[in-house]
């Protein structure tokens, strides 16, 4: 059980997967969060509003501290790649860096952005980076010249406007036991306070769906995901 969570910006993992990460840790999994950028230009609006004259570097420092604090509350190690945002750009070196990271960590599950997000230029790019690096790290199914791992299961986490991003959830994770940790992690993200209520409400709504689907009445908060590749199991049950 090794969970790798890759977000385009340093706050993405908090809103979309903090509960699932905390739950995985509770279940004894090893986890790693990767922030491809700090979201210093496109997802730090409140910091820029506070002081329009501050430097990009100072925003990065604050965003780093906030995301580190959120990751510490959840108990997950986090790495910052500082690729820059709005626009994030891909290069051969960055794909190689991500491929090595995936190969070194050997995740059994990867969570990242959805393929589409018409409201965000960087999230689909993160999807593409992860898609390519995951394939390269797992040898695309055939023997290859470099180290390869078994292809990890791979899910998209929920985008901000799911219907408009082609996101159809097929997996719900019960995060009831760790919801307070998610709330505490969300509270660390001072640059995006408007999202706290929204994602707490979303967890409650997704739990309603999860209860209706499964009959599991104990689910009070949930996070939803969409699998990107079929799962292979040894039983239909
Ligand atoms: Zn983002």
UniProtKB/TrEMBL annotation:
Protein name: PIG-L family deacetylase
Alphabetized Gene3D superfamilies for the sequence: LmbE-like (3.40.50.10320)
Highest taxon of the lineage: Bacteria
Pfam families, sorted: PIG-L
InterPro entries: GlcNAc_PI_deacetylase-related (IPR003737), LmbE-like_dom_sf (IPR024078)
């Amino acid at each position: 059980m090794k969970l790798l969570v890759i977000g385009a910006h340093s706050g993405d993992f908090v809103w979309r997967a903090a509960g699932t990460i905390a739950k995985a840790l509770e279940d004894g999994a090893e986890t790693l969060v990767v922030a491809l950028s700090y979201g210093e230009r496109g997802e730090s609006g409140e910091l820029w509003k506070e002081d329009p004259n501050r430097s990009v570097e100072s925003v990065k420092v604050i965003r780093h501290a906030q995301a580190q604090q959120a990751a510490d509350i959840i108990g997950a190690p986090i790495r910052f790649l500082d690729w820059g945002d709005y626009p994030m750009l891909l290069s051969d070196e960055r794909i190689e860096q991500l491929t090595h990271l995936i190969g070194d960590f050997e995740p059994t599950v990867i969570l990242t952005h959805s393929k589409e997000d018409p409201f965000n230029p960087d999230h689909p790019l993160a999807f593409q980076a992860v898609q390519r690096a995951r394939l390269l790290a797992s040898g695309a199914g055939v023997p290859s010249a470099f180290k390869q791992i078994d292809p990890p299961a791979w899910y998209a986490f929920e985008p901000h406007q799911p219907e408009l991003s082609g996101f159809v959830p097929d997996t719900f994770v019960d995060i009831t036991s760790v919801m307070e940790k998610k709330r505490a992690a969300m509270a660390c993200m001072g640059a995006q306070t408007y999202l706290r209520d929204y994602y707490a409400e979303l967890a409650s709504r997704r739990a309603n769906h999860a209860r209706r689907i499964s009959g599991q009445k104990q689910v009070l908060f949930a996070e939803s995901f969409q699998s990107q590749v079929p799962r292979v199991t040894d039983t239909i049950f």
